[in-house]
Amino acid sequence: MAFIDGTVVNVALPALQTNLNATAADVQWVIESYALLLSALLLVGGSLGDHYGRRRVFVLGVVIFAAASGLCGFAGSIHQLIAARAVQGFGAALLVPGSLAIISNSFSEQERGRAIGVWSGFSAITTGIGPVLGGWLIEHVSWRAVFFINVPLAFVVVLISLRHVAENSDRETTRVDWLGAILAALGLGALVYGLIESSQVGFNDRSVIMTLTAGVIVLILFLFVESRLSQPMLPLTLFRSRTFAGTNFLTFLLYAALGGTLFFLPLNLIQVQHYSPTAAGAVLLPFILIMSLLSRWAGGLVARYGPKLPLIVGPVITAVAYLLFLLPGIGGNYWTNFFPPVVVLGLGMAVTVAPLTTTVMNSISQNRAGTASGVNNAVARTASLVAIAVLGVVMIQVFTTNLNRRLTGANLPASVAQQLQAQSIKLAAIDIPENLEQETRQLIRRAVDESFVSGFRWVMVIGAALAAASAVTALFWIRGMPTSGSPLKANGR
Q1: DSSP character for 165?
Q2: Do the Cβ atoms of 275 and 11 come closer than 8 Å?
């Protein structure tokens, strides 16, 4: 459910812009409201599972997620949808860490790598089904059906969980750090709000400066509070392990690249390249198939070669994929434009994901499995949350600059140019006035599409830089074979 929803909504963004008259900032919030609650509460979700029972908390998360999905489907405005997505994020924060923690506690250290590989494979399969199914539903039913599909899935998941998943918990955690969760949500929320708002009013705006400053201060306060609590949701002592700290920093860089770039890919495919929603959803199928086919094999790489080699090679391959995304312009054949980078991206992530997850889970003691899973998932989600906001600023600035330059060169009437420039926040979903000549409309559409491609290329350059930086992180921070045990043992002390 969580992986389907993580990909299917991106395909629905162009439809949301059209049907709910949403700006680029609005559709950013459709993704960000979900990611914000998920990122801030994942650590609490892991702790709740450790204490109250991983299956119990997992099932509760599934029920909340399904109910919120129904609210998303019935949303009458973009703001109602954003609010429902936030509730969905809360449900996901309970179910996501629970799934991996249940697996980690069900297998021995020797079997755990391949078990996590199988988990990654099934996650990849559902991730692949999501965009294609969602695209078909958008074309033939409605964007609302994209959310309704979660309801029957949730019913099946609850039945399977109650019948086949054994309950397990760890009563070591005697309290839940709600203060930390609130501070994390407020800090990240202020940071993201300031970044998204800056794309409309600029970084010099007083409200943006105050919001960003407040976000940074609250996040610093969050770290201070976590360092003082006896049982924090983010145990900073875990980061004494060089391996745990390094893999989480690598996770942040790599998933910032992945989340930030893939947010704009469906917008490019549907609004600029004029793919149907179904075709746009199918574009990432090679990526998914490669990950699903190679994930079990990749899960055994740590046992064979140690964590360092795959965590260098995988991100380097991923960086090459983002550079290949620089080549497509407007139009052209899928097989030459988008197929090669998608295949290379799938190969790079397949080599990376299972070894990365296994290394994280093996770097700490098993009685902290829920917490470790929550930390790593929170890092990945926070990376995507921040990256979408930051790359959104880059995209809108590059798009606006290029569009203004092209419109000036087109010698359009001042009123038309002003009308188009006022809509730049919509990116490629700009409404072109109907009362213009066909030739002029085509000229404007070409300017809009070329401006979007310029911004898209900048986004991919940043994605490549982040992926390369994650490879450098593995080179200098990851050492030898991780051992199961305490953070200090994992650090060789």
Answers
A1: P
A2: no
Angle, in degrees to the nearest 10, between helices 2-19 and 109-140: 20
Structure tokens at 440: 């002029």
User: Is the Cβ–Cβ distance between 371 and 36 less than 8 Å?
Assistant: no
Res. 485 pLDDT band, cuts 50 70 90 = very low
How many Å apart are CA 65 and CA 83, to the nearest integer? 13
Residue with more model confidence, 415 or 491: 415
CATH topology of domain 2-177+229-399+451-490: Growth Hormone; Chain: A; (1.20.1250)
- Whose tokens are 């019948």? That residue is 163
Q: Which helix (H) or strand (E) covers residue 434, if one does?
A: none
CA R_g for the chain: 22
Of the chain, the percentage scoring pLDDT greater than 90 comes to 40
| Most distant CA pair in the chain, distance | 74
User: Which residues neighbour 4 within 8 Å (Cβ) at sequence distance 6 or greater?
Assistant: 126, 127, 129, 130, 133, 134, 149, 150, 153
| Coil vs helix vs strand at 45 | helix
CA distances 99 to 54, 165, 410, Å, are 8, 10, 55
Q: Among candidates 215, 214, 223, which has minimal Cα distance to 179?
A: 223
Task: Give pLDDT, residue 480.
Answer: 59
- In tens, the pLDDT along 156-204 reads 999 998 888 878 776 654 577 889 889 988 999 999 999 988 877 788 8
Cα–Cα distance for residue pair 414/140, rounded to 1 Å: 40
User: What is the rounded distance in angstroms from the CA atom of residue 15 to the CA atom of residue 10?
Assistant: 10
Residues 104, 346, 132: CA angle, nearest 5 degrees:
95
Amino acid letter for position 459: V
Q: Name the nearest CA neighbour of 33 among 96, 86, 94.
A: 86
| CB contact set of 147 (below 8 Å; sequence gap of 6+) | 69, 70, 72, 73
Q: How many CB atoms lie within 10 A of CB 218?
A: 19
User: d(Cα 223, Cα 41) in Å, to the nearest integer?
Assistant: 15
Indicate the Cα dihedral angle 200, 206, 211, 214, nearest 10°.
160
pLDDT in tens, 101-119: 787 777 877 787 778 778 7
User: What does the pLDDT look like over 285-316, one tens digit per residue?
Assistant: 898 888 878 877 887 887 788 888 899 999 99
Contact 218, 186 (CB under 8 A): yes
Do 403 and 283 contact (CB within 8 A), yes or no?
A: no
Q: What mean pLDDT do residues 405-432 have? A: 84
For the record, the structure tokens of 118 come out as 């199988």
Per-domain residue ranges of the chain = 2-177+229-399+451-490, 182-228
Quote the tokens at residue 83. 């609010």
Structure tokens at 472: 């450098």
Helices (H) then strands (E): counts for the chain: 20, 0
> Which amino acid, residue 193?
Y
